[in-house]
Amino acid sequence: MALSIFADFAYIAVPLTYDKKSIVKILSHINVGIAGQQTALYEALFLSSKLFKDSHSKEKIAILLTDGIDNASSVPLEVAMNRAKSNKIKVYTIGIGNAGEFNAGILREIAQGTGAEFFSANSIQGIKDIYTRINQLEKSKININKYEKKTYYFHYPLGLALMLLFLYFWQRNTWILNK
After folding, report:
1. Closest Cα partner for 2 from 88, 10, 12?
2. 35 and which of 7, 11, 27, 56 could share a cystine (Cβ 3.0–4.6 Å)?
3. What are the boundaries of each domain within the chain?
């Protein structure tokens, strides 16, 4: 997972990671208008595609969530879509708000052009339902290696036992010699 944010420009807030907690933490600090007031939609698509360039994942999925029409991109739509297609990225698009606030045709074109689907939502519950639907469509198993640092304390009692054994033989030998 990764998180890129866009408005006047697009930028990567969290690079590719398996750490969901870091993404949630960053999301909690994002405010509306943090990157400006316009919408650099195609630039966000291009930047997100760039994130996956070196990924060896079998499934590459991006979710483009917007409430606006592109009016600030420095990258043309065709270039951004070609980048997504060449990196074999499915781009699910979600338009939020009323139908006139975002360009459903462009979002549908992006989604269908990359083998994904377009969704529209006008409530938080609607967005949750869409994410649930995408999760059902894109099931993939992730192998995460967990490493556990183990600290062994056996050497403390072992050292004590060896010291007591040494003292026992030393005392026994000195007692026999004194007889």
Report:
1. 12
2. 7
3. 3-137
